[in-house]
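User: Thanks for the earlier help. One more: Regulatory protein, RpfE type. Can you show the sequence and predicted structure together?

Assistant: Of course, both are below.
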Amino acid sequence: MTQLDLLLPFAMPPGEMARDLLRELKMPSLATLLARASRSTHEIFDGFARALPHEYWLARQFDIAPVRDSDNSPALAASTMRSFHLPAETGTWFILQPVHLHITRDHLVLTDTRQLQLAESDARALFHIVQPLFEEVGKSLVYGDAQTWFMRADDWHALQTSTPDAACGHNIDIWMPKGSHERDWRRLQNEIQMHWHAHAVNEEREARGLKPVNSVWLWGGAEVQKRSDTNAKFEEAFIFSNERKPFTALANQKIAITSAADMLATRPERGLLAIDDLIEAALAGDWAEWLQRFQAMEELWFAPLLTALQDGRLDRLAITISHNTAYSTFDISKSSLHKFWRKPSLARLAS
């Protein structure tokens, strides 16, 4: 392999907690890689951007980011539909995800979709309840899986939307769809919410201690175009993830990737690896879980990658780390490792 791009969303801890968190991590391989690398990129985003920094970074690698990143969520609907082998030859499609909105005294908060635990049977029941509502307003609704549905709305192509992770944990008013058809969407969303309110599916979920599915989140609008080889930049694009999410549709996963050893064995000329294990814990503010998951990456990923650089199986490594408002990219080569005067340190995770 000549070059690997490694994306680590939320590997940068929050500034006020960085010193304490990094003190707990014992990761000599990652510390060596970061200390002897050169930072090539550092970009800061508005705190109200419609996607998280790592989402924009990933979308840029496949040329699907908005013209101005902060204005819209990445246009992932078409590529995600293809990953489900769903026909979408024309039109503008959006990703639609069933969600739980937490009701506070004066606003609504979007809960992390990973916490929904939505079974296939429940999802299909909820889907069929509201599908006629879309037909009544001239929109198509298509089922992908329990957490990923698709809506065709050609006349809503200019609607600006936000990714669920960008809106997670916040007052949703700021991240709701904006544009000339935002009221049309709100009316449809309200109808969906009324049809699901106190429905048997949700009553049974609550009886089992699960959150009710009380709304939907719209994002990722994309006009379907003739498919091109968007992955040409990478011979292999791997996304190591425990769940199927829209961003995984960008990956060319030809084998199951569970470790750096698996990935290096494929020997692509250039590869992209995105590891999303830290996102859920960071969004929840569960820093004990964040530490545990991050520490586990040392032996599984960073130590083998450092060894691969040292023995020449990997020529260059670019590590991109992020949090909710910024990302940085660090470039490392075998020659970089010779900078012995740079002592191993995780300090750059807080930079």
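User: Great, one quick takeaway?

Assistant: The first helix runs from residue 18 to 24.
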